[in-house]
Amino acid sequence: MTRTTLATALSLIVATAAAQAETLRVGMSGGYFPFTFVQLDELQGFEVDVMNAVAERTGDEVEFVTMSFSGLIGALGANRIDTIANQITITPEREAQFAFSQPYVFDGAQVVVKAGNESTITGPADLSGKTVAVNLGSNFEELLADLPNAAEIDVRTYESNIAQDTALGRVDAFVMDRVSSVQLIAESPLPLALAGAPFSEIRNALPFRNDEAGLALRDKVDAALTELRNDGTLAEISDKWFDTDITVVAD
Fold this sequence. Notes:
- By secondary structure, the chain is of the alpha/beta class.
- The chain is built from 9 helices and 15 strands.
- InterPro entries: Iontro_rcpt_C, Solute-binding_3/MltF_N.
- It holds the Pfam family SBP_bac_3.
């Protein structure tokens, strides 16, 4: 093969590889520490590291698209993003609309109260007659609605500031995932405390549109997640942010 022919062949290989690479548009709120947040003008967190690792395996580029959490599901359905990396819990309603990857975080729903109130509110059974905040668009409102005492709980949805309003006594408690709650209490100056044990296991995964292109992308990302799980990369990313492995079912 001549040098000219070899150079042409190499150019075709590079061009083909570039054509196969895609831009994966990943939606997230950028305000859910330590999963996705902005610090010193840099988007970072567990979700950012996971999606960068996925793209490294698939050979794609990642474009992070930040917006309010409540708008993420609509943006995915409208094809403005390709998936959501913001601790999206698998629920029957969401499974009817989207195709999910394998779970990559296993967690639980947690009641959090103002410090000092954890002796009177020790779990969901004590929320009767109480005001409880949840993030708008999250699955925690649904989990509260499934409780035996759901009719006695005043649930209030928030775009933000549920921790602040709980600490100030504007609501009696908020419900969030256990992992984020522990991190928030450890990092925040707000007087907050866990109220009992998690009351529901939740499995978080990446949703994709349930069409031919979405399913193909789901399968590609899912294969990358399997590689990252098998070689220990998921565990390493989890340990970086949480000092424990939240990517496997807890013992």
